[in-house]
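Complex record, two chains
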Amino acid sequence: MTANERLQALRQVMREKKIDAYLVQSSDYHQSEYLAPHFAERAWLTGFTGSAGLAIVTADEALVWADGRYTIQAKQQLEGSDFKAMPWGSGPGMISPQEWLRDNLPDHSSFGYYGAYMSPAMFANWEQALKGKEIKFVESEDLVGAIWAERPAIPESQGFILGPEYSGKAAHEKLAELRSELKAKGASHTVLASLDDIAWLFNLRGRDIESNPVLFAYAMITPETATLYTSERKLSEELKAKLAKEGIDFKAYEAIFDELKGLPADAVVFYDPERFNRKLYLALPEAVKTISGTNITTEFKAIKNSVEEAKQREAYRIDALALTRFMYWLHQEIEVAKKEINEWEASERLLAFREQAESFIEPSFTTISAYGPNAAMMHYGPSPEKSAVIKPEGLYLFDSGGQYYEGTTDITRTQQMGPLTEEMKLAYTYTLKSSLTLLMGRFLAGATGSKLDAIARYPLWQIGSDYKCGTGHGVGFCLNVHEGPQRLGFAPNSVALKPGMVVTVEPGVYKEGKFGIRIENVVIVKEELNNDSGQFLKLDALNYIPMDTRPVLVEHLTDAEIEWVNAYQQRSYEELKEQLSPAEAEWLKDFCAPLSRV
Amino acid sequence: MTANERLQALRQVMREKKIDAYLVQSSDYHQSEYLAPHFAERAWLTGFTGSAGLAIVTADEALVWADGRYTIQAKQQLEGSDFKAMPWGSGPGMISPQEWLRDNLPDHSSFGYYGAYMSPAMFANWEQALKGKEIKFVESEDLVGAIWAERPAIPESQGFILGPEYSGKAAHEKLAELRSELKAKGASHTVLASLDDIAWLFNLRGRDIESNPVLFAYAMITPETATLYTSERKLSEELKAKLAKEGIDFKAYEAIFDELKGLPADAVVFYDPERFNRKLYLALPEAVKTISGTNITTEFKAIKNSVEEAKQREAYRIDALALTRFMYWLHQEIEVAKKEINEWEASERLLAFREQAESFIEPSFTTISAYGPNAAMMHYGPSPEKSAVIKPEGLYLFDSGGQYYEGTTDITRTQQMGPLTEEMKLAYTYTLKSSLTLLMGRFLAGATGSKLDAIARYPLWQIGSDYKCGTGHGVGFCLNVHEGPQRLGFAPNSVALKPGMVVTVEPGVYKEGKFGIRIENVVIVKEELNNDSGQFLKLDALNYIPMDTRPVLVEHLTDAEIEWVNAYQQRSYEELKEQLSPAEAEWLKDFCAPLSRV
């Protein structure tokens, strides 16, 4: 089937269903960040495979919106079809899908979409944007699904329990805490659609989505019951028995809809408008009251307990070994032996080092292995077909992580491969200084991630550099590598950092066509000083993975910064030296040698 | 009349009007920060004179809420009457006025208030807080006004024009810009109730409120007309003629209400829910559409033009002379001559130095003249009756400002009067470092005041110190010393700093029972570097007023900080030396001597 044939087929069903404009989304029923192939409807229909974007199809038009990262790719992939790429952003002449509908859809048209792909928050946004326009919103069937003949099935991976020796808390204890909070909110029920919330609450993991150890499921919790709605094929009898012991029963994935329809009129349902879907929402009887807010489990999950913290530190020790061996290998193969190795090969080798650990499950995201100018593209990933050779000069950036039973890791190091320009050295030094500003300092409890983001950017601003992404994100525990509610970002936000929260600290410098630098460490928030000014918190590093100090212009560091870096490097070396080969250990000792003023 | 007699009189009119609970506010019709004596209803009724607080009176209860600053004062001032002080805040056992009403007012009671004292935003807040409670909100008459026999009249100061040589822009030009923005918002009318917005828009000043050079007035602007509603007694014939030339006509103060009632049904009125009053709002015909948002003039006013900037710098040169003479006087009288001088006498002397300038109008706020532990109280002000002696040891803080035709000033310096403790020196040094962090650095356009606030606090957090107030506030031009929309504060806010905005930078350390330190400078936002990372901005000092560097522990400053301080002090000296007496100049030269590492 060509793109145009698929388009004609969609228009055929749109005519049958009397839908004038249809929204094709890149979404699953759970508002997941990463999509299983089953849900890649926009990519299948249009041929545009970018990680974000949406399409609107009418009788005459077929438009695909893609953000700035994908402008060129969308154009190339849509070429030769009737689909047209629409740049998405705030540039001159750019028009959002909502604006396009407002300006182009005739009055009294019907606008269809599949509600299971849309969160209530997203729906409210569309509704608001089209307010005043005479348009009929139609909750339609999944029209793309209806014409997608050879569609991959929803994955059916096997679930497994992450016991309290890893999770630090039994599911029945988590359920008790959730119920107490639900009661405090005046709710009788909560329905979870977000897969990481469900996985965390039930101490249940799976492999339905690449890099995200989750299972496709819904969950409903009441004061008496906790029900997991998922495909029976994911659950062994043993697993079902374990869940039952925690007070969790099991029903079929789709059974949730009838259950919601059957809720008693006095039920009060708590749900998260960002992480719910409209089909679920519409299944609620009209008489049922709702309370909306961030899922209660989201904040619970963000605060790591002491077992999770200890395990997470173990995960980083495992990672440290793999990454250090990789760094030594890079040094030997490229700097010393001058072999021709490309980014893809390096990323495969990095994976191989991680795979040596018994508890390694899979990468926690697609590895970024980027040499030279490629590293200036924040989300660059090499492929076997397209991959630059890492030369013995300039900088090589690798950003990677693992899913372990001991937790989820995410680390970036930028390595000097040979001679550097002064610009690179200065940028590297200030990227390090920006990191150190957060890693070394204390802050007042109540400070939000947007404040810490500003504090981290400030040193880089002083050399006239800014990075167009957040300073850091929350990290799950053997779960999604990106999790909220906290984040360190430029946009104002009101979530304060709390003891036990884990975030990345990853400032960087990205010079288009030249180089990219990022140093990423992962920290846990800890209580520190408490005095007449209040409670102070600090960020405590979870990982001791050596950083390349060769590019550092020491004269730009303070004495305290030099001291901190030297202690960090020394600790990294001490923790690793016994596990390395003599050659690796010798190299590392040199690599971790203290910085000093000349 | 005793407080209890006033209370009985109020209860009498409440019974006549069938009002079960009445709200007594500290507010005028314009949501002004400072109140003219006419509007001090809560103070008159209850005897509690604090700058903030409110009372609720029922048949059985008479309760006065006052925040933490006033807990003791309220208790003392209410003693002997039936009024009872209620602490206001988030402490244990504290209950807000809304919570008290919710818990104590019987169902179907009537709750009365005078709408002219309440902004629509405030009303929405009360309504929200009492949602679900069976209570009748009653827009009543001003019941306290009705029983206040010897009430001071609303002030009738003479208005005067601040010509374009000061304001930089004629009123008719400002009106044209306002109309264009109104049109863009789809509004036909805007009604201004906030006095500083009206003063700015019409280039009109007065002296109706102490320290705020404004006139009591309303204004309405349409595409064709601009009307000032105020008492005719404030406007000379000459002034009216000048206003007429700018396209501004004049009507009586109270005429606004009938005008609003008479608006055509197709009018679309833009108003600011925070700076409007409910009586005005209710005067609008139901058919009239409204659009709400921050007053358009508020942002216009915040961005100072080049004439205002130049004048403002002049105002600070005038202030610098007065303050430097004051500092020399302090030094001579207390440090050298060991005379016994108290805080009140010092503040009177400071005023006398300011009054020597021809263009000085009045202080821009009540001077804070605080020695030793008194300076730890952020809003302390001495009185002739109660005032500590400034001894030749420790620290003396003075925070003062002037209203000049050239602008509004606000400066704090903390002076070493003699031997200091190490704790004082460290606190002073880090207060300075916190200031320098903002004064020396650049930041990315788009950064909000809450980000800059975090950046400024960070150095002080490192010595375990925080200040429980904002880092800075906007400053008017020959207008209110506090003006928005920008502010540097800990609470999240979404107003980005823009070129031309003026803010104070005033970090500090406040140690209860020991000392208080604040260093306050005033800066204007300027464009700086523009490169591939975007537009950077910087904060440029408007004032060159010497700072005491004697308490500074030089080893805690970076080389760049030392250099910046030395250049600042040198410039202060150069700008002042010609105007000073030889003895003053000699002292200043020494006072501004460069810092150096030992």
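Note: The mean pLDDT of chain B is 96.
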